[in-house]
């Protein structure tokens, strides 16, 4: 086994905890004998730094879930990784969980890498009481006596404002907010280095959502984890994430500190996302974008946003713009912003 070129084998505080390079993951579909590839993730590169919450935004079907599934190694047919690498600092040398031996994946799961999913019932076993579920997930990773383990679970539940009595409950006996807090407790009890969160608050009402987001932020600060947080909700990103990547049709089109994206969005698609957010006291009728997102089975050539882009020029339909660091820590893939760098 050789160390990945993207990340050193020894922990280095300055190195990213996750480096994704030119990742491509496509769905191979077969409709009545016609083979098609849905290019859901098509050449994505970005880093997540230690201790940050990195947000991924983009409208429905832009490929966010496919991207994090690929990063998490949850790859099942018809999804295929067709190129690129995913390097976690705690799993160097393989280029992705999907290429690592199952024993290595089991070693890092929950202890180094954990998940908070959209539906809590995907994680909580409906026929097991919570005490048993905590034991299933965490007992083998925490070196303690049974009594100490139980106390650690109770203390950790208190962090997400859950009483010890929930340990005797089945998931269906808890409210949606309580279940989601229980999944946050499960995902964080082993103090993982990295947490992947996929729309964890989308199904909750606004008040519970705020509570749950505050808990994710609080626990993340306390244990120092890095978080990759996916939601289409720009309001959630504004409150929670440190840096933000904007996806459009299977590609990353812009990345910067979240405050910077809201202050000075550069890509025309990001500008549209930001300008369409409702503001208090503002009753201006907002103009939608012309057209709709492309089919990822047959995306347009060049920049995938060009058919809808108010700034489109000839190069946009001919070549794919690279993500260019336009300003320190602000990358954008757009010829209209960066100029056409063709030789
Ligand atoms: N099993 C599948 N087979 C074929 N295509 C799929 C499959 N799952 C997803 N896709 C397609 O992949 C593309 C990206 O979907 P994905 O779910 O990753 O987007 P998303 O940004 O997470 O959307 P949402 O916010 O609605 O969850 C879409 O075009 C979708 O139709």
TrEMBL record:
GO BP term, pick one: peptide transport
Membrane topology: Peripheral membrane protein
SMART domains: AAA
Domain of life: Bacteria
SUPFAM superfamilies per record: P-loop containing nucleoside triphosphate hydrolases
Residue span, ABC transporter domain: 20-274
The entry's keywords: ATP-binding, Nucleotide-binding, Transport
Cited function: Involved in beta-(1-->2)glucan export. Transmembrane domains (TMD) form a pore in the inner membrane and the ATP-binding domain (NBD) is responsible for energy generation.
NCBIfam families named among the record's database cross-references: oligo_HPY
Protein name according to UniProt: ABC transporter ATP-binding protein
């Amino acid at each position: 086994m050789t160390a990945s070129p993207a990340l050193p084998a020894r922990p280095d505080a300055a190195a990213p905890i996750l480096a994704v390079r030119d990742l491509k993951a496509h769905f191979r579909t077969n409709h009545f004998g016609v083979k098609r590839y849905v290019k859901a993730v098509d050449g994505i590169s970005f880093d997540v730094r230690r201790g940050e919450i990195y947000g991924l935004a983009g409208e429905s079907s832009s490929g966010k879930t496919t991207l994090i599934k690929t990063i998490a190694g949850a790859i099942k047919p018809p999804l295929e990784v067709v190129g690129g690498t995913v390097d976690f600092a705690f799993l160097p040398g393989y280029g992705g969980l999907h290429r690592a031996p199952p024993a290595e994946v089991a070693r890092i799961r929950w202890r180094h890498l954990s998940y908070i999913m959209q539906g809590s019932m995907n994680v909580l076993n409906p026929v097991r009481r919570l005490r048993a579920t905590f034991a299933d997930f965490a007992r083998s990773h925490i070196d303690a006596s049974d009594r100490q383990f139980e106390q650690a679970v109770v203390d950790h539940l208190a962090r997400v404002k859950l009483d010890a009595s929930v340990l005797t409950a089945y998931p269906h006996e808890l409210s949606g907010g309580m279940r989601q807090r229980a999944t946050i407790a499960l995902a964080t009890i082993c103090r993982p280095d990295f947490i992947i969160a996929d729309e964890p608050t989308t199904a909750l009402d606004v008040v519970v959502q705020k509570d749950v987001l505050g808990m994710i932020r609080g626990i993340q600060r306390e244990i120092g984890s890095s978080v990759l947080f996916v939601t289409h909700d720009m309001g959630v990103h504004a409150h929670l994430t440190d840096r933000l990547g904007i996806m459009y049709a299977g590609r990353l089109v812009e990345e910067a500190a979240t405050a910077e994206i809201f202050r000075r969005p550069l890509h025309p698609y990001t500008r549209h996302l930001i300008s369409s957010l409702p503001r208090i006291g503002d009753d201006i009728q907002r103009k939608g974008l012309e057209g709709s997102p492309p089919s990822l089975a047959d995306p347009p050539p060049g920049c995938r946003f060009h058919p809808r882009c108010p700034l489109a020029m000839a190069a946009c339909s001919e070549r794919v713009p690279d993500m260019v660091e336009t300003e320190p820590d602000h990358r954008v893939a757009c010829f209209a912003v960066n100029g056409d760098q063709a030789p």
